[in-house]
Amino acid sequence: MKHAFRYVTDYDKAKDIVHDSFVKVFNNLPQFIDKTDTNNNLEFSLMAWMKRIVINTGIDHIRRTKALPQLAEINEEIWDGHAETISADDNLLYKELLIELSRLPATYRVVFNLHAIDGYTHKEISELLGITTGGTKSIYFKAKGLLQKKLSKIQNTKPLYVKP
Q1: Structure pTM?
Q2: Residue 45's domain is classified under what CATH number?
Q3: Which pLDDT does position 158 carry in this prediction?
Q4: Fewer beta carbons under 10 A from the terminal one: N or C of the chain?
């Protein structure tokens, strides 16, 4: 769900992407098993494969609907299970990052997610989105700059906690 939510900001659309992704997973599971080396970590391979399907389904949704960013409340369900793995400060920063990321124009958001978070190369992004490699690099650096500016404003307006 978290992967889908990074590409669409509407909770119901993210649920639809996850649903569509699971349909693809179940339909293609036999081919995945045939191609997978059972000597390697099957669980890790399966999770990586599923993550890629969710990302591609999210991109397909954006292409199909020419989705523009929509500002929406972030449903608290999206954070379930995440809080145990990181500190409270990091969890707050993660939430703020996702909120600011959701406010970026759709193209900026998608390129930033694919490169910075999902680890795609600019060449892979350009092939997925049908834009030049130089275009993806330019969009990425603009998105990164906007996020840095927005997050620094947030950080400067919040009082710092000083331990007694």
Answers
A1: 0.63
A2: 1.20.140
A3: 53
A4: C
